[in-house]
Structure formats: structure tokens, C-alpha cells
Design goal:
Elements (H helix, E strand, L loop, with lengths): L1 H32 L5 H10 L8 H17 L1 E4 L7 H12 L15 E5 L3 E9 L3 E9 L1 E4 L3 E5 H9 L7 H11 L17 H21 L13 H14 L1 H7 L1 H11 L7
Bound molecules: zinc ion.
Zinc ion binds next to α6 and α8.
Amino acid sequence: MLPFLSLIVIAVLLIGYIVAKPSWREYQRDKVRKLPFKKGWRVIIQQRMPYFRQMPADLQLQLKQHIQVFLAEKKFVGCNGVEITDEIKITVAAQACLLLLNRKTDYYPKLHTILIYPSAFIKEQQSMHAGGVLHHQRVTLAGESWDSGTVVLSWQDTIDGADIPDDGHNVVIHEFAHQLDQEKGSANGAPILGKDQNYKDWSDVFSSQYELLRKQKKSGIPSLFDYYGATNPAEFFAVTSEVFFEQAHKFHQHYPMLYQQLKLYYKVDPIYW
Ligand SMILES: [Zn+2]
């Protein structure tokens, strides 16, 4: 009888824990969101994100509250001599949280650590070529997003991406778009969509525009999107996300259907910033 009762008690406690955990976490986050936002942090955002001033007041407030939660939950680690400063943390957090506005978010739930390198870093890559030949390669990267919960960024490339806010290149937006894509497993260019979107529309529009970029790359025809987006659908989603936030006008003008899908997904319209 006693072991049976113990089992019931354990089951009740376990269910209670499962039910209470998300609301407890939400309660904690709400407390963090209400903390005063340091003046120095606001100055960093204005320097590193010039369009912040143009954003509607409610989005500015949301962004600042998201940054507080992001900083409370994610760990920054400096690599190769980088010392983590407020400038690094705020610059990265502000751009990462730009992708979370206007929707229910769990703040990149898989992500726990952001590694910061001083500049582009070298990575050894292996790939299998025809005939089963294993090919070793050293590649230089500005950023990387791992689905095991880490984002790696070059600080130099992060600053370069932020300094020119309308060139369509932003390594932080790129890597955090991958994190969104990786929430449901490996990145494949189809993140979890909201209730007001459907996967067929997303897939139809993204597939045709991805194929177009592949053809343009092959024939050397210039595109608003970096040819790197033609690597695979996951890269296409990350590259188009960079352009969505940084060159909204041109994007909307040349690719209205693709723009519409990203507008529905990100729930903001950067044309007005
Ligand atoms: Zn990428």
C-alpha cells in the first residue's frame, strides 16, 4: 500500500512541477523585464542600431525588455582574448531580440551560450566527395549557429554588420535566424510558423525564390540577396532575414511575396523604421 501511495505522491509532484514550471519561468521573466534599463545600454543601442530611434515606442520598449531577459538567461564567453563588455552583450542582444518582437517567445530556448571571437575564425570542415573521398577544408567564418545551443560570432563582423545598417549584411541577424529555424530540429529554412501562416504558402514562395537565386548565381546575374543564400534553403532563410531587416524597401519592391511571408513571420514591418 505504502509504495503505491508514494508513487501517487511522486506523480502528483511531477505533474505539479510540469504545470508550474512555465508559469514560474514567466513570472521570473516578468520581474527581469521590469528592472530599470541602464542609460548606458540605451546609448549603445542607439549607436549600434541607428534605426532604433525610428522604431515605434512600443517596439522600443519590447526590445529593451527582451534584452533584459536575454542577458539574464544567456551566457557570453570571450574567446582568443576577447573580454566580454556591456557593449558586446548589448550589441548582440539587441539585434538577436529584434527577431522576437510582437510575438510570444521562449527566447531561443535551446540557446545557452554565445561565443565571441575577436575577428573571423577558422574552422576545420570535413565533407564526403564522390567516390567516398573524405575532403578536409579550412574555412573562415564570421559566425555560426549550432543546434546544440551555441552561437559563435566574430566581434569585428558583428560591428561591421551593425555599422552599416542598410547593406543587407548582418551576421547576428543571420545566426539568430538559424537559431529560430533550429527550434524544431535541424535548420531547413522552415521555422515554426504562427497560426496566421501556412506551411504550403511559405514553402511555395521560398522554394521558387530560392531556385531563382540558384539560377542567378549560376549565370552571374546580380541579386539583392547574397549568393551565399543559394547554398541551401536554411541559408536562404537566414540571408533573406538579413535583407528583410536592413533593406526592407528594396526587398518589398523586388520580392513582394517573399517580403509578405517574412512580414507575417517576424510580425514587424521594417519599411516604416
Ligand atoms: Zn548561415
